[in-house]
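Cross-posting from the modeling subforum.

Setting up a comparison between two proteins and wanted a second pair of eyes on the formatting. Protein 1 (sequence, then structure tokens):
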Amino acid sequence: MSTYTPAGIELIADGDQTGTWGQTTNTNWELMEQMATGIVSIALASSTYTLTTTDGTLSNGRNAVVVFTGTPGATCTVTVSPSDMEKVYWINNSTDETVIIEQGTGSNVSIDAGYVAAVYCDGTGATANVTDLTASLKVVYKTSATGSAIMPSGTTAQQDVSPAAGYLRFNTTLGSFEGYDGSQWGSIGGAQAGGAIVTNKTTAAVSYTIPSGTNGMSVGPMTINSGVTITVSSGQRWLVL
């Protein structure tokens, strides 16, 4: 009797499927092609989804690239099944919510809306882990016409869940660039008029702490939005001109 690998490939038993083994072999090649090059688009509509690989048949979970679309309405947890299958996925989160990829009770990977990640499912069963293979990958995109770098962008609410020091992005809510210093996001100023003028916004829309060992300066008048706090560390100064 045939058995199946964790990835659902049929293993024909000795002397089995006389006269029909060729059809099974052809199906196996199609399944392996799906694992290597397959792309599937899945519309998420709720906070949970199971990405399943089924024995012996083409199935969503066997594809190499998975594009999630739709409006799940909240963070969506996608469970990879079966839990004993080792698998690498390229995940494109084209939804408007964070997608969490899990396989067992071990570690999982959160992919923010609008981002792409390669994840590895270790297939260790009930305690299986999912690892982000692109977490430390540094990529710079350039336009073909001007050579300018295209930075990741998104709203304040779409800031990375677990940023690391040195992250840079364009905040579409504030209309400005920002960077993460290891403890908080902060705006990055820009120069205008050929470098002769440095500008700053006149409204503080997010809370900010001037850390120890640094001072700040802004050109006023300044408006601090309701609920926003500007904290000046002991011994430091914030000068508003």
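Protein 2 (same layout):
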Amino acid sequence: MALAYHGYEDTKVTDIVELAGVSRATFYERFASKELCFDAAYEDGVERLSVAVGEAAGCERGWANRLSAGLSAGLSFLAGSPVLAHLLFVESLAASRPARFEHERSLERLAEALRPPLGSGEEVVSKETMRILAGGLASHLSGRILAGEAERLPDLHDALLQYLLAPSLAALHTADERRAAAL
């Protein structure tokens, strides 16, 4: 919460303990620094978002349907918690080096989650393309969140789904053209 008011750089431990309603001593019993507190909050937020997305996606058949359901759940989760969305997609970019590396690892996990499963017939998009898609998705979300539009993120579902599916559809089309030309 303090990050939403002050931003990562300007947030002090004093701001955190004041908003949390705990003593400075209690804070330091749990965290050795503001950075470690941020890391814990970031990891918790990523885990909660991942669970929401995974539960929704796991109920669907077919990669595109799982992708759509997971995207919808993720956007709704973020819209329901704008402060957490701000931490995950805005402040993580301003955080200290270890937290920034964690953000990059999160993008790698997102890219892997976006990738069609092996054997689905849709795994024609490279790992690097999926990493670029994950980065673009995160960048777009951070811009919307920074603009104060977190509550409206679910409205972006269709456009974002089209963005995420486009490379797979294009690659499948190209593969079909190659097969047809070989006949």
